[in-house]
Amino acid sequence: MTSVHSLATPIGSLVSGALLDEIGRRGSLQFSAVPLCIGWFIMGFAKSIPSLLIGRVVLGFSVGSMAVPAQVILGEMADPKLRGFLTGGTLAFYCLGILIIYALGACFTWNIVAFYGSILPVLALIALILIPESPVWLVKRKKSDKARKALLWLRGGNMQQVRTICMYM
């Protein structure tokens, strides 16, 4: 039951590479949040072992498809002082999420835990709508003005820092 998740993760990871360049870093994360929600709902409504397995496969694919874009977007968007902590922290927070699901499993039935599992992906999808695309990806797409605006937003309006960074773009 648990290993089927890991079988689908590499497939999602391979798909994410193509998506990174085609739909952007933010778009890739938005794409992966949708099957993550769907997988949890499939498991929450499951009435049979095959349904649970399908939900686990969908979750595994989604986790694989979000691992690479999450690292790339953090590397491209984070302030250099926070970049190491944030990129290093992704695995720690992934493990914390697993721990939270296990703790919820000790308190609630598996289908209730599955519905709780859908909360963070929904919140992530909303948050991803509110943030700009990666300035690096925008520059690669020849959208320098949008990249500058995104960078300005990411740097909290610090125009001096944006000018310094833009000199190297």
From TrEMBL:
- Predominantly, its location class is membrane
TM spans (from-to): 29-46, 52-74, 86-113, 119-139
Which residue ranges does the record assign to the Major facilitator superfamily (MFS) profile domain? Answer: 1-169
| Recorded topology in the membrane | Multi-pass membrane protein
Q: Where's it found, cell-wise?
A: Membrane
GO cellular component terms, alphabetically, are:
membrane
Which keywords does the record carry?
Answer: Membrane, Transmembrane, Transmembrane helix
Tell me if Signal is a UniProt keyword of this record.
no
| UniProt cross-references to InterPro entries, sorted A to Z | MFS_dom, MFS_sugar_transport-like, MFS_trans_sf, MFS_Trehalose_Transporter, Sugar_transporter_CS
Q: Which GO terms describe its molecular function?
A: transmembrane transporter activity
Instruction: Specify the protein name.
Output: Major facilitator superfamily (MFS) profile domain-containing protein
